[in-house]
Amino acid sequence: MGHLSLLDWSIIAAYFVAVFCIAFWPSSKRSNRESEQYFLAGRNVGWFVIGASIFAANIGSDHVVGLAGSGAAGEMPAAQFEILGSFSLLILGWLFVPFYLKSGVFTMPEFLERRFSSGARLYLAVISVISYVLTKISVTIAAGGIVFETLMGVNFWTGAIIVTLATGLYTIAGGLRAVLYTDVVQVVLIVGGSVLVTVIGLRELGGWNELKASVEPSALSLWRSASDPTYPWTGLIFGTTILGIWYWCTDQFIVQRALSARNIDEARKGTIFAALLKQLPLFIFIVPGLIASVLTERGLLHYDRTDQSLPALVGTLLPAGIKGLVVAGLLASLMSGLSAVFNSCATVVTMDLYRKIVPNASEHRLLRVGQLATLAAVILGLLWIPFIGAISNGLFRYIQSVQSYIAPPIAAAFLVGVLWPRANDKGAMAALLVGFVVGASRLFLEMNKAGLHGIWREFASINFLHFALLLFALAVVIMVVVSLLTEAPPREKTEGLVLHYDGLSLRGWRGTQMNHVLSLMVIAIVGIIWLCFS
After folding, report:
1. CA 120 to CA 410: how far, in whole Å?
2. Is residue 419 part of a domain?
3. Is residue 164 exposed (0-12), middle (13-18) or buried (19+ Cβ within 10 Å)?
């Protein structure tokens, strides 16, 4: 039973029971058999649920295990992905949401078809499914195994399979509405449990000043020099922004929550709320990782790998009862992220791949295909886990590095497509395909870097954030040049889908005064955090 008492196990069992009760309630409704209800929760969700679900979906394995592991390794700049993510969420709410909701699309690939072509839709659908397996499903399953192994004394694969099957079961049964409802409960557990770990860890250490005195100054700085091999500030500011636009503004995994909103204002409020929540990971994941590293140096804590730092901290410091509550929070973060990607993967496979092949498929058949797609994603995710270590030793860095090869061309297609009416389908496809070849080549070379020499080794060694910036610039140039050399897009490909600069009506971009105030508050909080941890 590892580090857990009977009381802890009872609390964890109660958590699973509560999650399943909440998840299966919406699945009992007859209306849930309709595809819009199943995949988009009936497009009638309010801002609080949207914001909480965006945060919960994002707070998965790369935070519970990976981000805390980065903190234990002295890599505080990893928190910049969270901090800068708030800017991307504001861009989602203020720029992209009006186009997405007015177009009435189910998925991001469908939006690309509306704006460009069916080829662009097919490309994004296939790439999305692949990226879900490589960067989300497999990593979350692996993190679940680590939590079970470190805290509960359960075999890694047994723990991974338990998390996967439990999450897959309620996701298949209840669809997005079940995912959203459980996410709200899980956010409370995630934040509450992580705050408890931070507070108790600091108390054990002797307070914040003792932590500052026990680590190198660089361990408490969000910034590194431009020559830093892992987190150069140039890559953090510019490369992370590119990854952020892809992840927060164009990835079905996140945007599906905004698509479920009852109107533009509710969706925008939800994104602003999520942007405020995104300031928490620095304090509830990175800082506990730092605490774990100091306690390990003092012989008060032990773990074999930095990715085990947060589970080890929980297992060693917390008393019975509280430990079970926090473990439930850790499992909540894993399951919320996994359920989100399961549902998104099912939506893309069903609506963008299967429905294109069988356009007259019944509602019942669409739901069955989505459920089978979830099962297939689970199996592929389990099979990919052994290959994670070939790319990076840390889960968080692994996710960001792989995303840097996938994200830039997609971000370019969406951003240029929305901001520039002259962009056409040929330009978009050229950018996507060339970007894919370059990104896939980089991924292959990095996995085989040990045997490379000369220019190929130099190419494989470019910092992944700098590479993301370079690949984005290449994709933009290709998209612009090819678009200018070919015919302009027809009016139906731009009407209501592009930001027109001549006499633009700003109704879709007008927000309430509170939305403006809260957006400025997010920016101010980021500035304060940057100053305090510089």
Report:
1. 10
2. no
3. buried
Q: 322-348 and 118-131 helices cross at what angle (nearest 10)?
A: 150
Please say whether the beta carbons of 413 and 475 come within 8 A.
yes
49: left (phi over 0), alpha (psi -120 to 50) or beta: alpha
State pTM to two decimals.
Answer: 0.86
Under a CB-based contact definition with an 8 Å cutoff, are residues 314 and 326 in contact? Answer: yes
In a domain, 255, yes or no: yes
Element (H, E) at 358: none
In the chain, the number of structural domains is: 1
pLDDT confidence bin for 35, thresholds 50/70/90? low
Q: Residue 171: inside a domain, yes or no?
A: yes
- Tell me whether residue 217 is in a domain: yes
Here the tokens at position 312 are: 């080890």
- Spatial separation of the C-alpha atoms in residues 90 and 80, rounded to whole Å: 16
At 261, give phi and psi (nearest 5°).
-70, 150
Q: What are the pLDDT digits (tens) for 249-269?
A: 999 889 999 999 989 999 999
Written as six digits, the tokens of 100 are: 């997405």
Q: How far apart are CA 280 and CA 194, in angstroms?
A: 10
Measured CA to CA, the distance from residue 371 to residue 343 in angstroms comes to 9
Cα–Cα distance measured from residue 139 to residue 490, given in angstroms and rounded to the nearest whole number: 42
Whether the CB-CB separation of 328 and 147 falls below 8 Å is answered with no
Q: Alpha carbon of 50 to those of 15, 53, 136, 173, 181: distances in Å?
A: 22, 5, 20, 20, 10
Q: Which domain holds residue 261?
A: 19-401+509-532
- CA–CA separation, 244 and 255 (whole Å): 12
